[in-house]
Amino acid sequence: MQYIKYKCNNCGKYLYTYYEGVKKYGTAIGRCKNCDREYLDLRYREIDIKGIQKKDLSVLPYLIGIAFGVLAVWRCYYLSSWEDMEMPKWGHYIMLIFIGLLGVAIIVFCTWDAIEILTGKKKEKYEKKIEESRRRIRDESYMEKLKKLGYDFDD
To answer: Are the CB atoms for 97 and 77 separated by under 8 Å?
Structure first.
């Protein structure tokens, strides 16, 4: 996975940089602000054609995040008993507060997302995007534009 700089196929103007492994859901057709021509926006994928990526509804990354959060809170507790650290006492307390709050924040946010996935609420959030995608795909001229621009329907 790498960062890719994308330029307009028509005029060569720089359009955007994106991370190859991350795809957003939406229309894959963009319009260049310089030459006003359409181009294939590689950052986006039509959710109704390719479906929701498995990683978007996976609980595993959030469970790993919860484990890291618990580890940070444990580390904060463990370091609180160290009195002979070679730093000022106020620095020791600031470090403990920072590590503890960071760990708690990670736990809260990862737990929230994991619950949304397990209860199906996250999938419901994608329903609106799926409906918008279906509307676009029903339009034959839109599908022709995708084919003409080289959209990968097999991914």
So the answer is: no
